[in-house]
């Protein structure tokens, strides 16, 4: 169906190209006529379609971090529409670019943001009811995750009262990431959004969920097959190879009561425990070019629950063996050169101190020449052959003011001729 746009809608914009299409309408990329800014136009071919309902919900959610900005919405005789912030690719598309899996550091970074988005939506009184990788996008800042597509969102609180329990409701959303209660026809509440989030975390880390391989005969059979596998698989087996907090999270979500308010801080703490224990980078995303170099098929400390060795190397950093060897050799050379320079410097300083001390000692020596006839001791008395070899009679003992024996021996040369001590 060809959609004819009213001039009042596109008076400031022109359609650049078509971004996507669905069962109810299309999404276009808009360019502002005067400003260098792009927007997204979501169109529903029905006059009172889901786009109009989504726009009203999105209007209530404005101001939240990771919530798309709404600029305009309305309806014409042919269709309903809304103009919103243009965002980047979905996590499902980014997952394919990253070879079908995200690193543990990236999964934790996504989940820490996603839990805050879900908490904000719940605080506003809404359930998303269709959480899946296709509904989570990144913005211009590739480190910020956005929660989008509120077409199936509904209020769970009316006049401060929680909606009533029902067990014969139609299934809503995506079968792969749907909660067990939704499979069983139980009316959804806050716990179901969190269970879907837990399945997303497993999917991002493992790249596949066991029930995704079921044959798609028809929609009803698909839902039944997925429910049988999802309901009977052991949680420990489902979370095998993942941190233990993943199974704890899934058990916690499934054990929540219909009207019970989830402990969002507790869920966040589970992811923070993993981040701290595994020494993971904070706000690490595999799809960012600067961080791709830290992730490769052979990443350090690829998580395995069977390993008991504590690893202090930051997760998802890559080792290039050749570069590492060269780097180590260079570091050793630098260390040796530094030590050699320090040693030479210390030796030079020591030599200068010794020379200075020698000069001072030479100047301070007060040599007393003794002549025959003086009333003082003669050379015969000093160097009497009978006492010369005695340990008690030494030049140092005779002249205590001479402190340096080496300086004394260099200055004076004594001859034992029983006459006089000659000084040269």
Automatic annotation (TrEMBL):
MF annotations from Gene Ontology: ATP binding; protein kinase activity
Full protein name: Casein kinase I
Protein kinase domain mapped to chain residues: 13-272
Amino acids binding ATP: 42
CDD domains reported in the protein's UniProt record: STKc_CK1 (cd14016)
Keyword Nucleotidyltransferase: no
Keyword entries, A-Z: ATP-binding, Nucleotide-binding
Organism domain of life: Eukaryota
Signal peptide location: none
């Amino acid at each position: 169906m060809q959609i004819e746009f009213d001039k009042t809608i596109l008076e400031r914009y022109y359609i650049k190209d078509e971004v996507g299409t669905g069962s109810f309408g299309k999404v276009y990329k808009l360019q502002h006529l005067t400003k260098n800014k792009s927007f997204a136009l979501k169109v529903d071919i029905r006059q009172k379609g889901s786009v109009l309902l989504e726009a009203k919900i999105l209007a209530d959610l404005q101001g939240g971090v990771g919530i798309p900005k709404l600029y305009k919405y309305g309806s014409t005789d042919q269709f309903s529409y809304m103009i919103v912030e243009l965002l980047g690719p979905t996590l499902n598309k980014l997952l394919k670019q990253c070879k079908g899996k995200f690193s543990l550091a990236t999964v934790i970074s996504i989940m820490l943001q996603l839990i805050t988005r879900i908490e904000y939506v719940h605080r506003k009184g809404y359930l998303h009811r269709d959480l899946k990788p296709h509904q989570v996008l990144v913005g211009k800042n590739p480190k910020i995750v956005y929660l989008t597509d509120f077409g199936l969102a509904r209020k769970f609180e009316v006049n401060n009262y929680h909606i009533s329990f029902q067990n014969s409701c139609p299934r809503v959303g995506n079968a792969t990431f749907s909660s067990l209660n939704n499979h069983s026809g139980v009316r959804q509440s806050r716990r179901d959004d969190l269970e879907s989030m837990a399945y997303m975390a497993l999917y991002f880390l493992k790249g596949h969920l066991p029930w995704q391989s079921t044959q798609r005969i028809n929609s009803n059979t698909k839902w039944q097959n997925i429910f049988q596998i999802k309901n009977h698989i052991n949680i420990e087996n489902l979370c095998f190879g993942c941190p233990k907090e993943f199974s704890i999270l899934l058990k916690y979500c499934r054990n929540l009561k219909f009207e019970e308010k989830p402990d969002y801080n507790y869920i966040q703490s589970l992811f923070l425990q993993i981040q701290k224990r595994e020494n993971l980078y904070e706000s690490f995303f595999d799809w960012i070019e600067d961080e791709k170099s830290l992730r490769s098929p052979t990443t350090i400390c690829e998580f395995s629950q069977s390993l008991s060795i504590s690893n202090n190397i930051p997760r998802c950093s890559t080792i290039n063996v050749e570069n590492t060897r060269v780097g180590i050799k260079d570091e050793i050379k630098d260390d040796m050169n530094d030590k050699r320079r320090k040693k030479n410097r210390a030796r030079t300083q020591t030599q200068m101190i010794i020379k200075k001390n020698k000069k001072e000692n030479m100047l301070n020596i007060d040599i007393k020449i003794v002549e025959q006839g003086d009333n003082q001791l003669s050379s015969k008395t000093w160097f009497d052959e009978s006492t010369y070899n005695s340990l008690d009679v030494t030049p140092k003992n005779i002249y205590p003011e001479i402190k340096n024996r080496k300086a004394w021996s260099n200055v004076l040369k004594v001859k034992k001729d029983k006459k006089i001590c000659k000084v040269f």
